[in-house]
Design a protein that fits this description.
This protein is α/β, with parallel strands linked by helices and 413 residues long. It contains 13 helices and 14 strands. The structure holds beta-D-glucopyranose. The site of beta-D-glucopyranose has 12 residues, from β9.
Length: 413
């Protein structure tokens, strides 16, 4: 028998599960910006993805089999509002069926109303650079809340405003591919696009970047009110990707880290925390100024540093809200580091909780291998391996390690 004296238990009722997003898994979504850019060869083709639109029931069976008691999905805006101001009841019915499938398996649903992709009518008319974008977004969120609010009690408005704006308007790696030339001079970690070399390069893009960030904060705040009106009593938050900036002992590096954390986390949270019942934290990467250590790398080329989750969670403690780890995970095709990575994440989450962060649940990214943004199908984040030709699913060994943690409601070693 294993020695269970060193267990790290979580509070009763703690939620454990995984996250997915619509365009990365569902397949068959053509009426949106990423699909259009895929047709133009600027991002990889999406195609049928995991065919999750048709296979969600059997995928939730797998989640159930793995012990999950919560699951985070996103709603595809271009399905719900394919034409400006026209909403598609048939697609709402689809998501109601998805929620019913989760309920039938006693898996608690978390909905993110928008995860990166824009309906074509919106992106082609300026997207979040449009003056009235916040109002348009809030109207969409209100509609979704009205239709799905009886079947789901946890909504997040936006997935990751910072990477969205940063990759779209500073790095130029994601739609709408606007690049600020200064980005190459600051070594901040982020998403690459091995696919597209075409950018709209301009120094003015930095101004657009800041404007889009403001628009997103306003969109969240308006959407919060709309969701509250339409889904009475539902919990509404945002999902924020925390890049953890830290430093060696050098005071200049410490100042740099302080400034970057202010810009990346506190500037956004300062604008929206009064309209958040909870905060979703996604954690994948850190940047330590003045660091000379070398790190093992994930398949994304990111440092293997799950320990950063603890300080990432502590960064949002000051807002005094319940926190969900809405995503954390690793691209690891060989499944050689995933189990250890998950254990280390969970250990650090426990430390953050001991230090007073009110964490309520943990959702691994992702249940399935899926369309990893500008890397297409080449990066494997899944607890479950997907063969994209046959749609066959194979549970990876690390998924069972996570299952054991869930069954024990804590770490065993
Ligand atoms: C995003 C996901 C993405 C994951 C891994 C997160 O920032 O929300 O859509 O697949 O990171 O890169």
């Amino acid at each position: 028998m294993s020695d269970r004296s060193d267990t790290k238990k979580f509070p009763e009722g703690f939620y454990w599960g995984a996250a997915t997003s619509s365009f990365q898994t569902e397949g068959g979504i053509e009426n949106m910006d990423w699909a259009k850019y895929a047709r133009e060869g600027r991002v990889p083709e999406i195609g049928n993805a995991c065919d999750f639109y048709n296979r969600y029931e059997s995928d939730f069976d797998i989640a159930k089999q793995l012990g999950h008691n919560c699951h985070r999905i996103s709603i595809e805006w271009s399905r719900i509002e394919p034409v400006e101001g026209t909403f598609d009841e048939k697609e709402i019915k689809h998501y109601l069926d998805v929620l019913a499938a989760l309920r039938a398996r006693h898996i608690k649903p978390f909905i993110t109303i928008w995860h990166f992709t824009l309906p074509l009518w919106f992106s082609e008319s300026g997207g979040f650079e449009r003056k009235d974008a916040p109002e348009i977004f809030a109207r969409y969120c209100g509609y979704v809340a009205k239709k799905l609010g009886n079947d789901c009690r946890h909504f997040a408005t936006i997935n990751e405003p910072l990477p969205y704006a940063s990759n779209g308007w500073r790095r130029g790696t994601w739609p709408p591919f606007k690049k600020w030339p200064g980005i190459d001079r600051i070594g901040v970690p982020g998403y690459k696009n091995p696919h597209s070399s075409k950018h709209d390069v301009s120094w003015r893009n930095i101004l657009r970047y800041f404007r889009v960030l403001k628009q997103l904060a306003k969109a969240h705040n308006l959407a919060y009110d709309e969701i509250k009106k339409n889904a009475f009593g539902a919990e509404v938050g945002i999902v924020h990707h925390v890049v953890l900036f830290h430093a060696n002992a050098n005071p200049i590096n410490k100042l740099l880290a302080w400034f970057m954390n202010w810009h990346w986390t506190h500037q956004l949270m300062g604008r929206i925390h009064h309209k958040c019942d909870s905060i979703g934290v996604n954690y994948y990467m850190h940047k330590k100024f003045g660091d000379t250590a070398t790190y093992e790398k994930t398949d994304m080329g990111w440092d293997v540093y799950p320990e950063g989750l603890c300080n990432a969670l502590l960064l949002v403690k000051r807002y005094g809200k319940p926190v969900w780890v809405a995503e954390a995970g690793v691209a690891d095709a060989a499944d050689s580091i995933r189990a250890d990575y998950i254990k280390r994440l969970i250990r650090c989450m426990h430390v953050a909780m001991e230090k007073g962060v009110d964490v309520r649940g943990f959702m691994y990214w992702s249940l399935l291998d899926n369309y990893e943004l500008a890397h297409g199908y080449t990066k494997k984040f899944g607890l479950v391996e997907v063969d994209f030709k046959t749609q066959e699913r194979k549970i990876r060994p690390s998924a069972y390690v996570y299952k054991e943690i869930i069954e024990h409601n804590g770490l065993v070693d």
